[in-house]
Amino acid sequence: MKFLTRFFGPNGRFVFPAVLALSFFSSATVAGNLEQGVTDPPVVSPKRLGSDVSAFYLGLSGAYASGGTDRFGLRTPTDIFEIGELDLSGGYGGIRGGWRGVLPAIGGRDYVYGFELGYDFGKIDDEVSTDIGTVAVTGGSEVSDIISLRFRNGLTNKSGTVLYFVSVGYVQGDITTSSSLSSGGTVQSFEDSDSRNGFSASIGAEHSLNENWSITGEFEYVQFDSREVEFDNGFSTKSTPRYRGLRFGLNYTF
Questions:
Q1: 28 and 129 belong to one structural domain
Q2: Staple partner for 206: which of 97, 210, 216, 238, CB 3.0–4.6 Å?
Q3: Residues 69, 15 share a domain
């Protein structure tokens, strides 16, 4: 009877299930080791992408040059004659590609920097004429096929949709210098072509249309090295072509 009393209460009710349940919950409490508490999951801090973003891009552009100058004077074995000042102008277009990186700057803006390689086709030219005695003298200059390597950098607006930039760079172009003498129905023409180095500087803005496409506009100044050009008739002139241009373009960023 004492054995049975262990599983039945004094009133004869069966208490084994209650004992079994109490034993189960006691074991679970020990196994769970609740005294150590629950460890919080690790929190990953968000990364600021502006610190290491870099991208490549390709683009097309069209431009018009005006206000260029190249004073043309003709040196003979005995004297120097002022022919006039060339106003270099003309339309040109180009292709370009480059890389740029982005760093966070103050005020919620980004600092953008990079290098751009470009090629411009078309021609920028002018000619001027004057009379020296009975001889009509014409001088001309033409710039074409320009290759450029530029460093471009600037700051975005706070929303990051517009980049205001300046650029400086090295340029190389084909320069053609010409002269002609006309007297009594006889015309003598002389021409010299060379590849010449120079530099460029520009200021402009780039507006992002979406994740990949953007449009650009800039005002640029280009100047080539000065060179003494010798013609076959023994005459010579000093050539220093330079021009100002307004350029618009479209870029695709990868």
A1: no
A2: 216
A3: no
Contacts of 163 (CB under 8 A, 6+ apart): 112, 154, 155, 156, 205, 206, 207, 208
10 Å CB burial of residue 150 (0-12, 13-18, 19+) is buried
Q: What pTM value is reported for the model?
A: 0.75
> Is pLDDT of 10 > 90?
no
Q: Mark whether 141 and 30 lie in a shared domain.
A: no
Residue 185: count other Cβ atoms within 10 Å of its Cβ: 5
Q: Domain total for the chain? A: 2
Between the alpha carbon of residue 68 and those of residues 86, 150, 153, 158, the distances in Å are 7, 21, 26, 37
Is 71 a member of any domain? yes
Examine the domain organization and report whether 26 and 125 are in the same domain.
no
Provide the domain limits for residue 7: 2-36
Q: How far is CA 167 from CA 46, 151, 220, 221, in A?
A: 33, 5, 9, 10
- Condensed to tens digits (0 to 9), the pLDDT of residues 191-217 reads 999 999 999 999 999 999 988 999 999
Query: What are 63-120's pLDDT values in tens digits?
Result: 999 887 788 888 888 888 888 889 999 999 999 999 999 998 988 899 999 999 999 9
